[in-house]
Amino acid sequence: MPVSETMVQDIVKEVVARMQLAGTAQSTYHGVFADMNDAIAAAKEAQKKVRVMTMDQREQIISNIRKKTHENAEVLARMGVEETGMGNVGDKILKHHLLADKTPGTEDITTTAWSGDRGLTLVEMGPFGVIGAITPCTNPSETVLCNCIGMIAAGNTVVFNPHPQAVKTSTFAMNLVNEASIEAGGPDNVACTVEKPTLATSSTMMKHKDIPLIAATGGPGVVTAVLSSGKRGIGAGAGNPPALVDETADIRKAAQDIVNGCTFDNNLPCIAEKEIVAVDSIADELMDYMISEQGCYLISKEEQDRLVKTVLTPKGLNRKCVGRSARVLLSMIGIEAPSNIRCIVFEGEKEHPLISEELMMPILGLVRAKGFDDAVEKAVWLEHGNRHSAHIHSKNIDNITRYARAIDTAILVKNAPSYAALGFGGEGYCTFTIASRTGEGLTSASTFTKRRRCVMSDSLCIR
Ligand code: NAD
Fold it and tell me: Which among 160, 63, 43, 49 has a CA at the least distance from the CA of 106?
């Protein structure tokens, strides 16, 4: 077979990717320190330099981070899957391209002005300084890169305490950010971390006098820790998003959207559909479409029991199951599923542990509701007051409004897969830090600023 130019390019790309994965030692990365205090000191020095850069220079760093994210999307995706064992490479590549294209940069930093008889007053968005950021293993490089774009665009630098199970991927992403800064004429160490992040290094960071703001992306434990730190905290916590389907929905499309959203990156995104609440009159039809057209595998009561024992341990979620594909999960309970299977489904009560727990794996329990009011009540219960994300498939705008008010989440997606909320098949910008607990919602550069009022009395109004 003749070797085409495209094939040669693909082989070269693969070899370069493998060399990068295998050959780059963490100790040679920019921004990695043995001691958390040294990491913070370096980020503080870098922030002094960022602070005096023009907005245009800052934007050049951001553009370079976007470029490097695109160039390294596949390397980062493979590294994340290899290191954490979670998710799938194809979807992770898409997530990197999405964040590179749609995370807001310096354009998000705006000024409000009042001018009148008594002069001119401006409110400007200034940096906090060095931000402490804690990141999850479910979207390791995505969160680091997205946080860096927003935080640096706002004039800050960042010290990360990444998840210990995703250190390599997270530090690789930080290295790219520092390279992007240096190449654009900015300082090194705009993103720093420690070689071995632990709860102790996290505690050092949270207590440090030079860290005025902490952004925590993770489960309930870390958000509570940050909010107890005595510092300003942005808490992007856990979710358990229900997808409600009523009798007015396009049921076939709802089945497709829900399964597409649920299976994206093996259900790792915190916004992804974690269970379904369907009104009785369409519940069977919805289940039929999911099984016949969307690659769903219906498990029996006895198989559900085996799955519960595999997925949930007395200490909580079995991390070996998080972000695994449906076929891998089924093989763990002795089922050899066909290759087209992408999601596990069953019907159960809302209290069923595979429904009420935030699993982060492609398992969708369907809860049957007597009518719309009952469906809303069940969905609100299942969201557990996280105020994170919820989804609805309905053509009745009164129903949509009632649901939106009752569930009161940072994200509510209507008639689309959950990832539309991140600007993927929907309008709006992207973020991987959704501040559900503290109310900032989908974070962006402006979230990481202090508002400052600048007043000129009786002058500079020329109206
Ligand atoms: P995790 O809570 O286990 O870890 C997240 C980070 O917090 C890690 O860096 C971990 O080391 C740190 N951490 C955990 N407990 C801590 C404590 N007591 N003190 C200091 N640091 C602590 O979460 P994970 O498994 O990495 O990620 C999945 C969770 O994160 C899910 O609950 C998911 O919903 C949530 N999440 C939320 C968002 C969001 O934007 N709201 C985004 C991604 C993930």
Answer: 63
- Edge-to-edge order in the sheet of strand 32-33: 32-33, 191-194, 157-161, 130-134, 213-217, 232-236
Residue type, 419: Y
Long-range contacts of 226-229 (CB under 8 A, 24+ apart): 226/134, 227/437, 227/438
Q: Is 199 in the pocket of ligand 1 (CB under 6 A)?
A: yes
Q: Which atom of ligand 1 is nearest to the CA of 206?
A: 20
Dihedral angle computed from the Cα positions of residues 345, 347, 351 and 353, in that order, rounded to the nearest 10 degrees = -30
Taking the C-alpha atoms of residue 452 and residue 441, their distance in angstroms, rounded to an integer, is: 22
Q: How far is the CA of 225 from the centre of ligand 1 (A)?
A: 11
**pLDDT tens-digit series, residues 313-329:** 999 999 999 999 999 99
Residue 45 burial (C-beta neighbours within 10 Å; 0-12, 13-18, 19+) = middle
403, 369 Cβ separation under 8 angstroms: no
User: Which ligand 1 atom minimizes the distance to the CA of 433?
Assistant: 40
SS3 label, residue 285: helix
Which positions of the chain have pLDDT values less than 70? 1-27
The CB of 269 under 6 Å from ligand 1? The reply is no
Residue 233 φ then ψ, to 5°:
-130, 140
Q: Cα(365)–Cα(350) distance, rounded to whole angstroms?
A: 9
Q: Ligand 1, residues 103, 138, 145, 384: which to mutate, most atoms within 8 A of Cβ?
A: 138
CB-ligand 1 contact for 225 (6 Å cutoff): yes
At 9 the pLDDT is 66
Class of residue 335 by CB neighbours under 10 A (exposed 0-12, middle 13-18, buried 19+): middle
pLDDT at residue 5 in the model? 66
DSSP state of 4: P
CA distances in angstroms from 141 to 22, 215, 223, listed in the order given: 17, 15, 20
Given a contact cutoff of 8 angstroms between Cβ atoms, the answer to whether 232 and 212 are in contact is yes
CB-based contact 191:157 (threshold 8 Å): yes
Q: What 3-state class would DSSP assign to 178?
A: helix
- Closest Cα to residue 258, out of 369, 372, 123, 413? 413
Closest atom, ligand 1, to C-alpha of 197: 11
pLDDT, tens digit (0-9, with 9 covering 90-100), for 58-92: 999 999 999 999 999 999 999 999 999 999 999 99
